[in-house]
Amino acid sequence: MTGVQYSRVLLKLSGESFKGKLGYGLDPAAVGYMASQIAAVRGLGVELGVVVGGGNLWRGSEAESWGMDRTTADQAGMLATIINALALQDALERNHDIPTRTQSALDVTAVAEPFIRRRAIRHLEKGRVVLFAAGTGNPFMTTDTAAALRAMEIDADVLLMAKHGVDGVYASDPNVHADATKFDTLTYREALEKRLGVMDTTALSLCMENDLPIVVFDVFVAGNIERIIKGEQLGSLVAAEPGSRSGA
């Protein structure tokens, strides 16, 4: 794998990415686009695991606000991530002939394998893309935390946090503040102390404790994943001591 900085990668795709230009649900064009970006990365020989969110279909916190039991609401959200994973699996296999395995933290063996760490690593070694669904399998835990956890478990070199329409970490919301400062690099502690919304604090703390670098970037700029894996500095890097450099 010449010219590749990371040989094993965990990619986090938010549920927002799956809805594309739609207000809700699954956009076939968005799913197809993400499959094509993953296919390009696999073409580099990189071992790739993907954690998928489910916010395009269901959000447990919103259901709780309606009066639904939070545990039940979060379990429904886990099922939403399985739907997204199956849609992405189909696009990868049907359009790109890429062998793909979906592993679920919930027991749904009719449609997905159970998550087994050693089996997941073996799939990666055989060149299969592994999609991790149903979060951690526990309520009150986000898919950000699942992404950090799975990245540790498969010994990933980096966690790529794909965003929908946001090209990195900013000091304030760039959609509200046009002059918001973008951080090219920052430390885990800076991200935690400044509450920059890189990911939830549990996930960020887990990455900090295990020294796992995080790259936050816009997934809907074609080629971004491939360019990052080749070592190009895109988006925002969160790591132990990358330097406190920032730029607009």
Structural class from helices and strands?
alpha/beta
Tally of contiguous helical segments: 9
Determine the mean pLDDT. 92
**First-residue to last-residue Cα separation:** 33 Å
Keywords:
alpha/beta; 9-stranded mixed sheet; 9 helices; 11 strands; globular
Could you please describe the fold and organization of this structure?
The chain starts with 7 loop residues before the first strand and ends in a 9-residue tail after the last strand. The protein has helices at 15-19, 28-42, 60-65, 70-96, 117-125, 143-153, 188-193, 201-209, 224-229; strands spanning 8-13, 47-52, 100-104, 113-114, 129-133, 158-163, 169-170, 182-183, 185-187, 214-218, 236-239. 38% of the residues lie in helices and 19% in strands. It has a single domain (8-239), classed as Carbamate kinase (3-Layer(aba) Sandwich), CATH 3.40.1160.10. The strands form 2 sheets. The chain has a 9-stranded mixed beta sheet, with helices on both faces. The chain has a two-stranded antiparallel ribbon with strand order 7-8. α2 (28-42) packs across α4 (70-96) and α6 packs parallel to α8 (201-209). With 248 residues, it is of the alpha/beta class. The protein has 9 helices and 11 strands.
